[in-house]
From TrEMBL:
One of the Pfam families matching this protein, by short name: ABC_tran
Keywords: ATP-binding, Hydrolase, Nucleotide-binding, Transport
Keyword Nucleotide-binding attached: yes
GO molecular function: ATP binding; ATP hydrolysis activity
One GO term (biological process): transmembrane transport
Family: Belongs to the ABC transporter superfamily.
Gene name per UniProt: dppF
Organism: Faecalicoccus pleomorphus
Class of this enzyme: hydrolase
Keyword flag Nucleotide-binding: yes
Identification of the protein by name: Di-tripeptide transporter ATP-binding protein
Assigned EC number: 3.6.3.-
Domain ABC transporter: 8-259
InterPro entries in UniProt: AAA+_ATPase, ABC_transp_ATP-bind, ABC_transporter-like_ATP-bd, ABC_transporter-like_CS, Oligopep_ABC_C, P-loop_NTPase
Amino acid sequence: MPESKKILEVKNLKKYFPIKKGKYKEGQPAVKAVDDITFDLYEGETLGLVGESGCGKSTLGRTILRLYEPTGGRVLFREEDISKKNKKEMRKLREDMQIIFQDPYSSLNPRMNVFNILAEPLLAHGIFKRGPELEAYVKDLMDRCGLPSYYCYRYPHQFSGGQRQRIGIARSLALNPSFVVCDEPVSALDVSIQSQIINLMKDMQEEKKISYIFISHDLSVVKHISDRVGVMYLGSMVELADKEVLYQNPQHPYTKALIAAIPIPDPKKRKELSVIQGEIPSNVNIPSGCKFHPRCPFAKDICKQKEPAYREIQKNHFVRCHFAGEFE
C-alpha cells in the first residue's frame, strides 16, 4: 500500500526466552521465539500472519506492543521508537495500540460485568469520569459491536463464545486506537460466528481507518480479511507479499505446502491434501543454514550450509529462500 502512510515499522525484531531463569544474555541457550523480523504496516491495512503452532506469531504481536520486552531490534510507531520507552510513556501509547486476545473465556475478568470491563480503560486513561456520559458511550460501543446495550450489567459467564469475543473487540476499540493486534480472534468460534466477527472488524476498520495485524493459522480466513500476508516459520518471516500474489504464486517451499493443504469447500471435488514431512525443529537447537531445509523437498547442499537472505524478488514480495523466483 505505497499510497498510504506507514503507521508501524518493525526492524530486525528479536525475542529470546532464556532457558535458565533471569534475563537473556548473549550466547546462552534460549528459545528464539522471534528471530530478526522486519516489515512495515500502513494506515488502514490488514497484515495477516500465518504459520504452524509455535512459529512465534503471537509472541511477535505481543513483543511489538511491549507486552514482552524485545531482546533486540526496534519498533517504530508513527515514526517514534517505542523500544526504549519507559512504562509511563508506554501507558500513554496504549490508547492508540490495542490487542484482541485469542481466548474469549480467559481474557475477560469473571468478577466484572460488561459495563465495568468496557469502562475500565476509559476511566484508567482519564477519558471519562463515572456518570451518564460514560454509560451512554459504553452502550453505544456495545451497539456498534453487535451487543444489545441492555446486556451491559451481565457477567462473562452469561454469554456465548461469539458474544464474549465481541466484548473483547469492544474493549480493544473503546479508546479509538489506530493499531490493533488481533491474536487469533476467531479460532475458537463456530464458522458462522467467525464470519460475523470478521465482518464486524472490517466495518470498524473502514469507519475508523484502523490498522490490523491479524494472526491466524487458518489461511482461508487470512485471505478474506488481509491486504498482505506474512508467513512465519521457526521465529522467522520466510515470505511476505500481497495476498493475491502470495496465494497464486508462492515462492517459499513452506508457503507452497501451507497453501496446498487448504481444503476445497466443495464435497464433489476431491483434493489430496499436502503434508509437510518431518517435525518442526527445536527453537533452541535451530538447524544450520536454512531453518526449513530438514523438511524441504527442494533442499540442496547450500541450504544446509548457508542461511538464505531475506530479499525482495519482485516489488513488495519478500522471500527467505536461496531459490526464490525459480519456482513456477
